[in-house]
Amino acid sequence: MLHKAKVLKALEDLEDSLFVDTTQELDSAYKAWKQLICDDTFKEKIEACDVDWPLPTWEGNLDDVFPVQSYTDPYQLLAVDGSQIYPDKHQGTSCFLINVGTVELQYGTGLKGATLDATPHVFSERMHFSDDGFAGSTDLVNCKREELELEYGYNHIIKMEQEGLKDPLVFLFDGSLIFWHLESKEENLKHYFLKKYCDQLKLFKKQKTIMGGYISLPKSKELVNIVRMFLLQFSTKKNPLELLPLLVDTAIVNFFLPPGARTTLFKNRSTISDYYPESVRPYFFYINVSDEIARVEIPAYLAEDKSAVDLLSAIVLDQSQKGGGYPVGIAEAHEQAVVKGPDREFFYHLIEKCGIKQKRRIMLSQKSRKKRGIAV
User: Fold this and answer.
1) Strand-strand pairing, 210-215 and 66-67
2) d(CA 312, CA 173)
């Protein structure tokens, strides 16, 4: 039971750290930004830097602004999202579940307006993953979920084509195309899933899929790193993290990007992106959808096609406007995928029934038993 009065007191004690004033950092970053965008050699200096932290490169001018045109023509949107039930030792099972939600939306195509679906997948760690050396981890479940999201996106696009696809079709998913979560993982897990992800991206390239990973309230600091390098005068001997520790990229983008516009394209140069084939290496741009500045990540083959980038930007903006500040397709896909408390209990109940059928006893932990009924 939550003691509300004690929570209030604890929050009051933390007020100074919960709401930090970034005015000084913003002022410092703004002054640096105004100077560095006037330096015609700045891009070459950034590209020449050999550092361990992500420094992107870009096309055109760093502060280029591209107005996003309103899109009123017919189009189709496919959105995919996933959710999961992690393995729970207290439930006496190594099973985990991944639920993949898909949403197909039609605008002016004359086809059915919305098609919603969710497909659950149940895995046994012992059966599928113990030989690879990374069974039993939440990392495994998260990686497998992302693999299924990409796989479902591709398979659904193929199905839509077989049913008479009407162009244009845009595929959106929630999250990053840069697989940051693998960067610090053990090598066998990293290589296992990176190969699967990149193979899937190459299939999207073969289909010439217009696709993007949408990140709401992004916490990336790649543009902040650009400003840090300027403040450090391109010295790699000093610790950059001591500078502008509270700012994220959207603070920098706010200096120049108006609502209804996007930035130039940036090429990610993090260590993890070196594993990608060149044709699907990740690029990104920021887009001001009025309610927030979001980050959109795309593969290289799409970044090379300006008309495709313009179309993707227009549909992202349209979807955000339809969804009240967040793409409606991704929001609906999340609703299809989300696994709630009663769903979780139902899953464990079915496992118990399977145990009874197999004449096997599920060994619940005492902690789990106590949660089901606490004696006083």
Assistant:
1) unpaired
2) 13
User: The whole model's pTM is what?
Assistant: 0.89
User: CA 237, CA 278: separation in Å to the nearest integer?
Assistant: 30
Which two three-digit tokens encode residue 237? 């001997």
What are the start-end ranges of the H helices in 207-362? Answer: 222-231, 249-253, 300-303, 306-322, 328-337, 341-357
Cβ atoms of 102 and 156 within 8 Å: the answer is: yes
73-215+277-341 CATH fold: Nucleotidyltransferase; domain 5 (3.30.420)
**Separation of alpha carbons 241 and 231, rounded Å:** 12
Tokens, residue 266 = 């940036």
Output the furthest CA–CA distance in the chain (Å, rounded). Answer: 75
Distance of CA 151 to the CA centre of its chain: 16
Give the pLDDT of the chain (376 residues) as one tens digit per residue: 889 999 999 998 888 888 888 999 999 999 999 999 999 999 999 988 888 788 999 999 999 999 999 999 999 999 999 999 888 765 557 788 999 999 999 999 888 889 999 999 998 766 555 455 555 578 888 899 999 999 999 999 999 888 877 779 999 999 999 998 888 788 888 888 999 999 999 999 999 999 999 999 999 999 999 999 999 988 877 777 789 999 999 999 999 999 999 999 999 999 899 999 999 999 999 999 999 999 999 999 999 999 999 999 999 999 999 999 999 999 999 999 999 988 888 877 787 777 666 655 555 444 444 455 555 4
Q: Which long-range contacts (CB under 8 A, 24 or more apart) does 134-138 make?
A: 134/186, 134/188, 134/189, 134/192, 135/94, 136/87, 136/94, 138/86
Q: Which two tokens stand for residue 91?
A: 């439930």
Distance, CA of 350 to CA of 98 (rounded, Å): 15
Please compute Rg for the chain using Cα positions: 23
The CA–CA distances, whole Å, from 146 to 78, 110, 200, 296, 347 equal: 16, 32, 11, 17, 21
CA dihedral 223, 229, 231, 234 (to 10 degrees): -160
List residues bridging with 109 in a β-sheet.
none
Break the chain down into helix, strand, coil percent, rounded to 5.
45, 20, 35
Question: How far apart are alpha carbons 128 and 327 in whole angstroms?
Answer: 35
